Amino acid sequence: MENFSVESLFEGIKSVDKRLLGKAITLVESKKAEHREKAERLLQKIMPLTGKSVRVGITGVPGVGKSTFIENFGKLAIAKGKKVAVLAIDPSSSLNKGSILGDKTRMEELAKEENAFIRPSPTSGFLGGVANATFETMLICEAAGYDFILIETVGVGQSEVLVADITDVFLYLNIIGGGDELQGIKRGIMEMVDVIFLNKVEEENRNKAKLTKVELLRALHFLPSKEKDWKIPVLLGSALNNKGLEQVYEKIEDFIKLKIQNETFEKVRKAQAEKRFDYWVQQFILQKTQDESATEDLYKQHKKNASALKSNPSSEAKIFVEKLLKK
Ligand code: GDP
């Protein structure tokens, strides 16, 4: 990695120099200790400039039309004078080299827009780490003045939970199919979602889509509401033909307004920040105990006990931490 100073990266972010934005993101994604130290300084510096965007999580199975949606929704937001950043949390990218935003042909038109910034998903590290890198990338984009941060994920593993953990509004894309739409939506997702968009609704399947909508609304009716006075809307449209995207935009605005009114907007963001804090406490404790000579041996000893498959790992960890805190 080239050696850019924290100051030059900071200036690059403020002036929305996309090349330097990219460098700053590479820095926060890095796991090397010296990079991390620099990343901390940079993140601390940009903090006063963050927090002003709307953070949108977008999920749905591959092929449902997420990138088509993001491309046209992003263009719509830009036409309204907004600046849009697109990020991804992609668990598959840490397993193999594939990445949902890695494919250069996706969102080609949006990528050409001056007021858009598209960042492929980080390709290393375990999922929790990837979510964290995405969170910090989001802060960088906010500091650069992006109004909308769209975070895409595929419905694999825990990725939706992680996206929900760092966003303000959660959008679920679905298509109508063979009548098993409801089963197609994992229950866990239904509990996280704020807006549903039924994509690929065109002339020939409009009636069926309307029926699906009724069914979905009925199913949603039985779920406890996540946000007071919010009824999860089921919108119909076609990302490809730019139909229904305006309504999604409006619903997102309504939802954010309601959260501010209910005073949950800040509250949720604060709770999210606490989760990030806990993540880093774990990371730093683990790293420090491995690195510092005073604790290194103790750490190795208990880890070895666990790896001998005779002692319960959590018990070993507990004994180790207790000894550590007494030191
Ligand atoms: P992703 O995997 O969820 O990102 O889905 P893509 O955006 O790549 O879309 C998958 C396929 O569905 C592509 O061939 C798109 O052109 C197509 N598609 C996306 N939205 C629509 C739509 O509204 N109508 C129709 N007919 N096709 C669509």
What does the model show?
The chain has 327 residues and is of the alpha/beta class. The chain folds into three domains: 1-49, Up-down Bundle (Single alpha-helices involved in coiled-coils or other helix-helix interfaces), CATH 1.20.5; 51-262, 3-Layer(aba) Sandwich (Rossmann fold); 273-326, no CATH class. It has helices at residues 6-14, 18-29, 33-46, 66-79, 91-95, 108-112, 127-143, 159-164, 181-184, 187-192, 206-221, 245-261, 265-291, 293-307, 313-326, and strands at residues 54-59, 84-89, 116-118, 148-153, 169-175, 195-199, 234-236. Helix 2 runs antiparallel to helix 7 (127-143) and helix 14 packs antiparallel against helix 15. It is globular, with a radius of gyration of 22 Å. 36% of the residues are buried. The model has no long low-confidence stretch (mean pLDDT 88). Guanosine-5'-diphosphate (GDP) binds at residues 60, 62-68, 199-200, 238-241.
Keywords:
327 residues, Rossmann fold, seven-stranded parallel sheet, 15 helices, binds guanosine-5'-diphosphate
What's the quick description here?
This protein has helices at 6-14, 18-29, 33-46, 66-79, 91-95, 108-112, 127-143, 159-164, 181-184, 187-192, 206-221, 245-261, 265-291, 293-307, 313-326, and strands at 54-59, 84-89, 116-118, 148-153, 169-175, 195-199, 234-236.
